[in-house]
User: Fold this.
Amino acid sequence: MLFMKQTRGRPKAFDEDEALVLAMNYFWEHGYDDTSLDNLLPAMGIKKSSFYHTFKSKEALFSRVLDLYRKEMLSSLEILKKQVGAKQTLIMMAQMTIQELRETGTVKGCLMVNSGQECYKKYTNLSQQIAEEFDYFYRYFTSLVKEAQANGDITNTKEASVIAGRFLNMINGLLATIQAGAPQVLIDDVFEQIKELLE
Amino acid sequence: MLFMKQTRGRPKAFDEDEALVLAMNYFWEHGYDDTSLDNLLPAMGIKKSSFYHTFKSKEALFSRVLDLYRKEMLSSLEILKKQVGAKQTLIMMAQMTIQELRETGTVKGCLMVNSGQECYKKYTNLSQQIAEEFDYFYRYFTSLVKEAQANGDITNTKEASVIAGRFLNMINGLLATIQAGAPQVLIDDVFEQIKELLE
DNA sequence: CTATTTTTGAACTAAATAGTACATAAAAGC
DNA sequence: GCTTTTATGTACTATTTAGTTCAAAAATAG
Assistant:
């Protein structure tokens, strides 16, 4: 950042924000528990002492990663919405998951939902934070539905929050169902169901 | 078991089937990775040497646990179906999850779906088996829908396998959505959506 | 009663884990 | 230049993990 007050002492040899993005991508790919510091630190390009000096602990780092993930996702969705509209943004979320499955054979899923399961009952602080992040998404999707209802792209007259909740649940289900190894025909039909909800 | 051929050598001091049930319950409560042998073995009531002698490895045990889980669940569902009918059995599956959440504040979820996520990309053998177990459920739920359509409890004329797939996906979503910390109102409305599907 | 077979308890191993300690390096302030 | 401050590299620690070793125990077969 420009104009930042110069601090005394030896300057950091890495960019904190860049390292955080690298950490986010590693966690997203591997999950929280399966990310060991011995593998994460090379991916972040820093050494252990720098890590603990800057980020305090694995859990504290992950808390910042969750925050960053929500910000990045919501801002990407906002950009997408400006390009293709609110309804199409919702549809594309499901579409992209299915396309990823088709092209790569696997699916990364949503960092928040994946971590939700990992942290449930086990890391209560993180779990609490995930609930708060989830609520941001819930409200954002509700606003997307409201907008699509207003411009006539969604004619379903149910309350926007109800449609958004059902949408989120089906998207979450899609991940779990894919990870349980469901056949492609089942996945494809869930996509149909999602489109029907948004008609 | 009666009439089993007496084997030579020192007899087992525990019942293999009972130990397997205890293991299943422990795994169900704690997940695969968070179940350490040091905690599992006391819960099973056996010592390490007996464990490895009988069950070979943690992964081999879990494979048997998954098999047992599917058998127990499908047989419980079959009993429930005889009592309350096919449609009500499906509805009660969702209802029981929500009730568990209300009463205890948490939810154990489906061992198979939970493990699906844990094993995805990491334990490919188990992941493959989970896909097979999932297919048993998919076919069983399809048969329940078919039966409910035949007796008029479900009037939705979509193919039974389509309804069953959508149902499974919403149930799986319910778990993920609860674990992500969604508000109760969202959960309750997903239950409404499930009932609408089965109308 | 003795040989054979199988199970069991206790102690051990090797690898991985998150986190620490500390000396050294590199900057700013004066 | 000297002091203060902050960052870094290397080595270490304590704990936990799945799995092994092996001698002793408890049964059957003859």
